[in-house]
Amino acid sequence: MAKKQTLSELKFEANTKYNRTFSESFKKAKVKEIIEKRMSVKQVCELYGVSRTSVYKWLYKFSSSAPGSKQVVQMESEALKTKHLLEKVAELERRLGQKQLEIDYLQETLTVASSEVGYDLKKKHGPASLNISDPISRRETIK
Fold this sequence. Notes:
By secondary structure, the protein is mainly α. It has two domains: about 5-60, no CATH class; about 75-140. About 65% of the residues lie in helices and about 0% in strands. The longest helix is centred in the last third of the chain and has 43 residues, at about 75-115. It is rod-shaped and about 90 Å long. The protein starts with 6 loop residues before the first helix and ends with a helix.
C-alpha cells in the first residue's frame, strides 16, 4: 500500500536540489494561468519549486506578446492596492471629521455650562467659596 505524503513532505521534495525538466505543455499552461490572473508568479515559484527567473523565461517564451517587448505582470494588483488605500484614507478622513465635530460640540457644551454655573468647569477644582480646606477662602467667607 502506498504511503500518503503530507504537504510539508511534498514541499521538501520540491525544494531538493536536482535538475528537473517541465514539459512544454506544462509551461504553457502555467503561463496561461499567470496571464489570466488565476495564479501569480510567486505562487508558481513556491508551488512547483521553480525560480522566478525560470518562470519569467517561460512568460517571455510562451506569452502571446511580441518578442523583445516588455510585459508588465500584476499591474492590476498595484492599481487595486492603490484603490483600497485611497478608500482607507477617505474613511480615516471621515472619522477624523466626525471626531473633530464631537470635540467642538463638547467644548461648546462646556463653555455654555460654565457660563450657567458661574465658574470655569475646565479647571480641576470648584470655585474658591466651595473649597473649605483652603484657609484663605474660609477667612473671606467669614468676613
